[in-house]
Amino acid sequence: MGCEHGMVGTPPNCHCPKDSELLGGNCVHYTATCSNGLAADFTPQPCAGAEEKLACKMRQDGLKDCCCLLYDKL
Question: What's the predicted TM-score (pTM) here?
């Protein structure tokens, strides 16, 4: 039996494909608008759209990347 809910891979190592995230038990695709290489203490502006989610990740080099994620409708 393969992966379910839009996941890819081989069980038990199932994961959502690139540019998607597990939400409500299913992989939901998103479009990302990103700013990369920001200072660690930089406060990013809120995303332009009310339906967008701001997501930031710290990098190994001490900088961070921030993206506004707009999810496809379910």
Answer: 0.78
Give yes or no for a contact between 27 and 6, defined as CB atoms under 8 angstroms apart. Answer: yes
Phi-psi category of 25—alpha, beta or left, where left has phi over 0 and alpha has psi -120 to 50? left
14, with CB counted inside 10 A (0-12, 13-18, 19+), is middle
Which residue, among 63, 61, 67, 59, has the nearest Cα to 41 in the 3D structure? 63
* Distance from C-alpha of 16 to C-alpha of 55, rounded to nearest angstrom: 17
Q: pLDDT tens, 5-63?
A: 999 999 999 999 999 999 989 999 999 999 999 999 999 999 998 999 999 999 999 99
